[in-house]
Amino acid sequence: MPKSLRKTVLVAVVLLLLVPAVVACGGGGNKPTATSESTAATTASPVTSSSPTTATTAPTQAPTAAASPMTSPVAQATATTPSAAPTATMPMQQASGDAAYGFNVFTWGNEAGQQNDVRTVEMIQGAGFNWVRLHFYWSDIQRGPDWWDPLAIDNIVNQYHDAGINILATVSNPPDWARDTSGERLITNLADWQNFMFFMADRYKGKVQAWEIWNEQNLASTFGGTVRVQDYAELLQGAYQGVKAADNSALVVFGGLTPTGVNDPSIAIDDVQYLRSFYEYQGGSYTEFFDIMGMHANATDNGPDLMYPDNPGVGKWSQDPSFYFRRVQQLHDVMTEHGDTRPSWITEFGWTTANQAPGYEYGANVTAQQQADYLVRAFQIARSDWAEWCKGLFVWNLNFSVVTEPSDEKYPWAVLNSDFSPRPAYEALRAMPKP
What is the CA radius of gyration of the chain? Predict the structure, then answer.
């Protein structure tokens, strides 16, 4: 196929893909809104926007909080006000970044959803998994420069900490007050972002073991309308410095890129091309600001052993390597090209069964048993073929079926039914050998 025609086809394809990429792989669901104010003063040393620097001190004043809880999409939280920095109540599993087996989950964090939260924890533990991936929105936690509202997040974090489950917290979505309105960059003052990440890492020190910086930043829709590698490099630097100043033992994870098959900054940038551009930006000077490389795999209806062009599938999504589980190997190859031997986590991957949402018709080609087989096989590939570098996998998703209708695209990716009963995929993951 001529390149010009191929590009046209891929642009058309990605318009269908962007919904799965943003929603099915969005880590969303926990988007509480404020019910009352809390305040905390905060200051931080500015972060440079042209070249990286090494953090040596924390922000000059760590925020404190006295907040009313936030509401979740389903019910209002009723927690009491905690201390500014909750302390650990039980020992955690070793969070070295090795053998991180996790689920992407919906969590409630409020009184109305308490029983669902308990069931969610039980199902994670029952599967023998040791990590959970949660998505926190900056805009929900710091609603103004001096307005902090973290209590619903306290509930969520404490729930998993008390159960002995490690937390990967993905942070994104800046509040309006911090966004740059010129369209030239995402955030006006990077010191605000660094200070926010210091606050989070300090407040949840010993409870959140890893921080993933942004989610699918190669999509324009997640990054202010235009994909800019240089903006992300600076965000990563600020986050890394803020986290390490508060909790040097916490892991910083490069935000997982989503496969797109297109290169248009107003829509999306191909994940491999984006990563290569990041490594080459300013001579690679920003590559020091993470501990683990995050990756996302959107395999559509292609099984985990397939890969284009050597062993392709046969469906609509089979003619581009972007839409295969083994695409992550190509991301790792970019790291290898630049001499990077740090480990990687696949922070989102999965297969949908028959899906009612437009653009997800490929799910009809995956049975519930195939979903189970594909997930287990993906873990086997990571343990055997990629054992040297792939140290964590997070299934998308555990339980979004509980809070969505069958017509919602997230519903059939779940490994649990709407009543928390296990689908074949959950049973297969539970029976799967663990490290």
Answer: 20
The domain total for the chain is 1
**Span 316-360, pLDDT tens digits:** 999 999 999 999 999 999 999 999 999 999 999 999 999 999 999
Map residue 36 onto helix, strand or coil.
coil
Residues 83-131: tens digit of each pLDDT: 333 333 333 334 555 789 999 999 998 888 999 999 999 999 999 999 9
Read off the tokens for 34: 């404020």
What's the rounded Cα separation, in Å, for the pair 80 and 338? 49
Q: Residue 332: what are its φ and ψ, rounded to 5°?
A: -60, -35
Structural domain contains residue 42: no
Instruction: Indicate the range of 46-55, 123-132, 193-202 predicted with least confidence.
Output: 46-55
Q: Is residue 10 part of a domain?
A: yes
The residues pairing with 401 across neighbouring beta strands, listed in sequence order, are none
Structural domain that includes position 372: 3-32+68-431
Q: 18 by DSSP, 3-state: which?
A: helix
User: 50 lies in a domain?
Assistant: no
Is 46 part of any domain? no
Residues 6+ apart with CB under 8 A from 401: 410, 411, 412, 414, 416, 417, 418
Residue 176 φ then ψ, to 5°:
-60, -35
Lookup: tokens for 12: 């058309």
Of 344, 296, 366, whose CA–CA distance to 324 is shortest? 296
The CATH number that applies at residue 150 is 3.20.20.80
CA 4/CA 428 separation, integer angstroms: 44
